[in-house]
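Internal tracking record. Fields below are filled automatically when a chain is submitted to the structure queue. Please do not edit lines marked as system-generated. If the sequence contains nonstandard residues, flag them in the REMARKS field before resubmitting.
Queue: standard
Priority: normal
Entity type: single polypeptide chain
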Amino acid sequence: MEFNHFLSAYYPDTSYGGDRLFADMLDQARQADRLGYASVSIPEHHLINILLTPAPLQMAVKVAAETENLDIMTSVVQLPLHDMRTYAGEVVMTDILTDQRLMLGVGRGAFAVEMERMGAPIEQSREKFDESLNVLQALLERENVSWRGDYYNFDELTVMPRPVRKVPIMMAALAPPAIYHSTLRSFHIQTTPLMSSNEKMLEQVGAFHKAKDELGTAGEELTLSLSRVCWLAKNEQDKWQKVAQAHDYYALFDNVFTGPGQVHSGAIAPLPRQQTMEELETNLLICTRDEFVDQLGIYAEAGVDQIILSQNIGPANQETLDNMQAIAEEVMPHFTNRTHGEAA
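SYSTEM-GENERATED OUTPUT FOLLOWS
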């Protein structure tokens, strides 16, 4: 099982400054490269102060320039917010400028307040995403593409420059049926049980492997990535401090994911949470070393190819860098033979 570090750009204190925020993310990318992580992932969100990367393809090019070995995944670009006629060219250019290290993770969008403000209401995002994905694939794979649909109508055009390879696409999906059908379409898969149990995770992983087995040799190269909020705690006191910080993070996340979407000057209002910290702790990967290794062992045995570790939950950047190193030294050797700076 390989390890991915999520450059999640958590921005709870909006006075911190975007320059410092993205400098921290580049620090973490360089650290991941030095420590032998296989890849990093970059979100796309706008107008809010969590997961704040408005231009993930730009960030991918910058990360590639600062690192040597990392694969770079978008996690994930929101296709309904873009025009595929221009976005396809941006994808090709990014893949070229990252030396073909790009994995294009795509999704429909998750936060209603963001989607509505960007002119792509979440109620329509499924249909627009499906058509956008089909248009994007056609533009990347063929020349002289024309289209007649609900969201795109255009005469023949050819995206330039042409791709130098087939850019791998990873589908973000949570529901096991969506994972199953996306795998059958030969997409790599990214998923997460969010705050659910291992039983939910096993259903998600099982759906991927069921479809992959049905594909036979055609699915051999497909991979499954699982995202988890995590922290390798030094002791019980450190563990509960980080759980409390994760609880504060989810007070913002809940507001825009399932709540009313209260945002003031770009800052999400924290909502009171019904879930206790004790309940949250049971569903996150915030624990000391032995439990951390045991939990990852369950993921590896289930058939997860890559674990995406979301470590930006509130600590200062240097503490996060130290935690990345602790994971690389104390946990990763149990699951991968990769050495520091080794290419994927």
